[in-house]
Every structure is written in structure tokens, then in C-alpha cells.
Amino acid sequence: MRLGSTLMLALMPLGVLSVVQTRDALSQVDATTLAGVGGAALQAVSDQIDVIKEAQISVRVLASILSNEPSPGPDCVDRVTALAREIPQATLVAYIPVSGLMTCSSNGRVYDFKDEPRFQDLIRTPEPRVTYNPRGPVSGTAVIGVSHPVFDASGVQAGVIAISLSYTAVAPRDYADSLALWRPAYLATFLSDGTLLLSSDPDTPLDRMIPPSANLQGLTRIADRPAYVDDDSGRHILSVVSVTDDLYLLSIWRPNATGFWLSNAFTPYLLPLLTWIAALVAAAFASSRLVVRHVRALSRTMGSYVSTKQRLQIPDLSGAPAEIQSLHAAYEGLIRTIEQEEADLQNLLVDKDVLIREVNHRSGNSLQIIASIMRMYRRETTDQKLRAVLDGLINRVIALSSTHTSLYALSGQRDVAMDVVLANVVKRLKEIHGVALGVASKRLQPIRMEAQAAIPLALALAEAVGCYFSVPGLGRDAVVVDLSEADGIIRLRIEGPAVPQLQPETTEGLLALPQRMMRQFAAQLFGTVSIHLDADRASVELVFPRPKTA
């Protein structure tokens, strides 16, 4: 890597010089190309534009002549016929009065234009026009219309002089010229209002040739400023040339096959890239022989030790650089140190596990002893209030003991299976209260929670279940425990007989203690407790969000 980096740095000045020279050359080519596209496009359609300009001049002159006559006289037909002969591309030269009835035409036909929308527009807005009509009303073919208003001596519009040019006769057919690297792909003439007149490819929609966000009228703002444009089809030149104040020429140029690489933006970087690649190949070969193969041998040995704790035999490193041999010696020393430390750590872990198990065992026994002592006192007393207090304490100690047993079985895990914890709590409480095994049914989803959240949830369950188990003669499935989770919200629902301790109106005294305890446990879980009554059934629902992992 160091050798390759050194070679790349040494060759960098040459590469930078090559990039600069190539970019300068391409910039000159780009400037020449952009300067030449407008003229080349005008040359390609010069005949067609000359025809349109000639027609514009002819209608202006003829309109001036007719304006000096009170009405179209017998010479009108001769004048329009003579003009039609001078312009071979003209399909019709005619004078149309404001009434719309054409009687003076080069073909001798009579036609009523009064209902034609285009004629009505010419009368409403009397100004020179160049229009495109895909179907001329007289010829029935596509025509380019060149018109000029005719005014009488008093300045009132008398009519319109118009020339219809055959679209097929004036449309561009081929290109007379092209640039060295670019070829014209599309030519079109259009008016300043966006009306398309002539096109070299009338079968291709215009929106496929120009940028998606552009239109002909908007392209007039970039007239005489050709530019490179990149789209999905590649790089091309877009040029708009103003022919007259109202007439524009659009041309689109794409690179020739022979000039593609010279016109590609990647070309300036090709030569230095190839140079750098050659340098890297040489550096890679040299480094592979001197360094890489020895490093790979060491790497295989290290990987084998990490995955299997087995050390592979390293090949002879006598020909390796001194740095590689030093690395091998350091690796061997490191392995010996790691093995010794792992042995010491394993011994410590064994001692720790034995100590934790002993502490947990003694803690569990202590809770069991406390519960047994309280049961003995409960059996000896006849005071109902005291028995109720002892029942509550026994329930809480049993819940703590069951939860502690589940946490002890985790063996160092951070979370606990709450379905197992809550099932153990219910089982122990049934044993303590002497109720039948089938009294309580459990619908517990397999939910895992942080260990610190397990204790308040188990204690809340013990408070509710203990109240239900105090009712004598419970039938099968008299108590139902339901644990579920949806959308990050955990619900613990306990349903059973309607006991006094779980009445909403019970707010004072010893009977209200279970409710207060459950609310305190719920507050530790950032949740709420609600009690619902239905006939002779009461249900307790604890709802809280899933505790976030620390």
C-alpha cells in the first residue's frame, strides 16, 4: 500500500497536467462547436426560411398595392396569379375581403372563409401573421400561411392578402452541413408565440426532442445562446436562433459515433486513470511478494485462533521483512498472555457463580421462612383484620419469592419471561390459599421484560389474585389471568368474583389497601389500574408501556 501510494503521488503531477491539457482542448472544441451550431442550422434550412421571408415581403408589397385601390379590380387576379408563379412553393395566393368571400385567387376558385376561425382571428387582430394549418381549407393539405392585412384609404381594414405555402415543399429534408463531432438530429422553425411551423421530423412529438420542463415559447428566452444539455438519451446541444423578430430556428445536435469519446465528460480523466492503474498493478505485485503473502499467513493463524482457539503452523518467515517477523513474535507473546488471562478469568467466573447461587439460595429460603412464620401466626389468630393483613403480607412475600426464583434461573440474563413468572406466582398463591388447581386459568403471551419491571408486575398480580382467592368455594376457571401486548402496550387483566376489596367505591380502610398497592405498583411501571364490574364479576386491568431497555 505504501509503495502504491508513493507511485501514485509521484505520477500525480503528470496526471494533473494531462487533465488540464485535455480539458483545455475540449473547452476549445466545445466553444467552436457551440459557435458553429447556429450557423450550420441556418444553412441547413436557409432555403425554407428564404421562401417564408419572400412570402412575407410579397404579401406586404401586394397589400400596399391593393390598399390604393378602392376595391379589387380586374387586375387583382392577374397580380395574385403572377405572384403564385414567382413562388413555386405557393399552393394559393388570394385576396380575401372582410366579408370572407374569396373571389380573387391564383387558382380561380371561389371560397367563403367567413366561418373559418383562423380568418376571423385575422380580421379581429389585423397584423402580419405566419401560421401553420395541418389542413388548409382550399388545398386540403398541410400549409404554412403567410398573411398581411389590407387597409383602404381611410385606414379601415378591407381584407387580407394571404399566401399558402405547401408544408411538404418547404419542410427540411436533409442537412447540408454538420460539425466534426456533432450531427443535427432535429430542426424546426417556430413563431414567438410557440407555434411550430416546419419540422425535419414531423412524426416525432416535440416533447420528446426538447427538455421535459421546456416549451417553444419559453425557448425564445435562450435565443442565440446554444448550450449543452444532458438527459436520459445522453448529451446533446440545444440551439435556438432568432431569424426575424417573430421567427425562430430550433436545432438539436447529438455527437457523431466517431466523436463520442472526445465529447464525453469522462475523457479528460481517462489517461491519468490508466496511468494510475498501471502503477497500482506494479505496486500490488511487489507488495504481494514482499508483504501481503506473509501478512495473510499471520491473518489465517489469528483468525483460526479467534474462531477455534487453535493456532496454525506459520510458514517460514525467514524471507519476510523484519517488521513482519517482529509482528509474529508479538503475536505469539500476545496469545500466551491472553490464554493465561482467560484461565484466570474462568476461575473468577466459577467462583462468582458459586457465590451468587449461594446468595440466591439463602435469600429464597429466607423468604420461604418468612412466609411460613406468617402462615403460623395467621392460623393462631382469630382477629379477622389481622388475618386479612397477614394474608396480604403472605401474598406479597410469595410473589417476591416466585419472582426471585425466576430471576435466579436466568443465570445472568437481563430480561425475564413474564408468562413464566406470573404462572409461578398464581401457582404458589393457590397452594397457600388451598384452592383447587382448576380455579384459575391463564392466557399469558410469551412476553419478556427487564428484571427490574418484573417485581412490581408480579406484586400487582398477587394483590388482585389474593383478593379473589379469599372467596370460599371458587368454581373452575373462577379466576382468569390474561397477559398480552400490542403496539408496545402491555396489558395484565385479572377477572374473578366481585369481592369487596375490588369495588370502585372502596376507598378507605383495610379493604382499600389492595387497590392502593396496585396503583403504586402501576406507577412504578408508568401505567394505570382500572376496575370494571359486570354483574357478579370484577376485573382489574393494569396497562403500561413496555419499559425501555437501559
For the secondary structure, the number of strands is: 19
Give the amount of beta strand, in percent.
15-25%
Uncertain residue ranges: none
Q: Specify Rg, calculated over alpha carbons.
A: 49 Å
CATH superfamily of the largest domain, by name, is Histidine kinase-like ATPase, C-terminal domain
How many structural domains in the coordinates? 3
Largest sheet: 5 strands, antiparallel
Kindly, what is the distance between the CA atoms of the first and last residues, rounded to a whole number of angstroms? 43 Å
Helix count, per DSSP? 13
Mean pLDDT: 76
Briefly note the CATH topology name of the largest domain.
Answer: Heat Shock Protein 90
Helix content: 40-55%
Report on the structure:
The chain is α+β, with helices and mostly antiparallel strands and 550 residues long. It folds into three domains: 2-45 and 172-268; 48-170, Beta-Lactamase (2-Layer Sandwich), CATH 3.30.450; 357-545, 2-Layer Sandwich (Heat Shock Protein 90), CATH 3.30.565.10. Helix content is 49%, strand content 22%. It is built from 13 helices and 19 strands. The protein has a five-stranded antiparallel sheet. Strands 9-8-12-11-10 form a five-stranded antiparallel sheet. Strands 14-16-17-19-18 form a five-stranded mixed sheet. The model has no long low-confidence stretch (mean pLDDT 76).
